[in-house]
Design a protein that fits this description.
The chain is mostly helical and about 270 residues long. The protein has 11 helices and no strands. Helices cover about 50% and strands about 0% of the residues. Helix 4 packs parallel to helix 7.
Length: about 270
């Protein structure tokens, strides 16, 4: 006889909280893949969507992430159109059967909300097993202003769950398959946005540093192998996504959008110095 345990269903609680938060904040309409109107308001949302539209209709290339039909001088790759390289490459093979109008940004946002809630729940679970405390803490993570600010401006950067996953691995340094989880997070973040990747890379290095201690000397070899493997896979994926497809002087805003120490007090100063 199989013994019923409610703990097996604990993950349904944060997942439900994340889904409800998404529906209340974003609404269900953006989940319709045929609804593109909310993406055509200008700014980053429109740029991301058009990057995907041109990428899906471009021929396959090597590297895979090149976006040659995106426009003269800015064609480079799906990465530099601010598209979601991960989902763009996932859906492009099905371009022939997808409808002419198809957006996955709504699906991406619901994934962000659900995983934000789940990983917040996991982090809080390291300190308490009280469901009410975990639930209220999860709601607090879902109401994070930096995340909500990005939802209607830059959907890729709403993927704060990747940062939470990295924090969880730092706070729980002896999780099962630790090295594999780190490599997965690094590659996933690189496939979403470079900003997120840089933060997660720093957390990965910090975690490796914590594990290079005399008490863990027996694991030094596996940690070094993990570090080397991670770097090689990162370079291969960066090449395939098209990060290396342009030279720095050709990047839009390079040399203009910059910062110095005065930018901490006046953000406009760094633009002109």
């Amino acid at each position: 006889m199989v013994r019923f345990s409610i703990d097996k269903f604990r993950c349904l609680v944060p997942s439900s909280i994340g889904l409800i938060a998404f529906l209340l904040i974003c609404g269900p309409n953006i989940l319709n893949p045929l609804n593109e109107t909310w993406l055509l308001t200008g700014g980053d949302l429109t740029q991301q969507y058009f990057g995907w539209v041109f990428f899906r209709n471009s021929p396959w290339t090597m590297p895979l992430g090149l976006n040659p039909m995106y426009g003269m001088d800015i064609s480079s790759s799906i990465v530099y159109s601010d598209g979601n390289p991960l989902l763009s490459l996932l859906f492009k093979p099905f371009n022939a059967v997808l409808p002419e109008i198809f957006q996955f940004q709504g699906l991406w946002l619901v994934i962000c909300f659900v995983l934000q809630a789940y990983l917040a729940w996991k982090i809080l679970g390291l300190y308490t097993r009280d469901w009410l405390s975990q639930g209220l803490g999860t709601i607090l993570f879902l109401l994070s202003t930096p995340m909500l600010f990005r939802v209607g401006i830059h959907t890729n950067l709403a993927a704060h769950f990747l940062i939470l996953g990295s924090l969880y691995l730092n706070l729980c340094p002896y999780a099962k398959h630790q090295n594999y989880k780190w490599i997965f997070l690094l590659l996933a973040s690189l496939g979403v946005h470079f900003y997120l990747f840089v933060m997660i890379f720093g957390l990965w290095v910090a975690d490796l540093g914590d594990r290079f201690t005399p008490q863990n000397s027996h694991n030094s070899k596996s940690n070094l192998i993990s570090f080397g493997t991670g770097l090689v896979l990162i370079l291969i994926l960066a090449w395939q996504l098209g990060y290396l497809s342009v030279q720095a002087p050709n990047l839009f805003g390079y040399g203009f959008f910059k910062a110095n120490l005065l930018s901490l007090f006046n953000a406009n100063v760094g633009l002109f110095l």
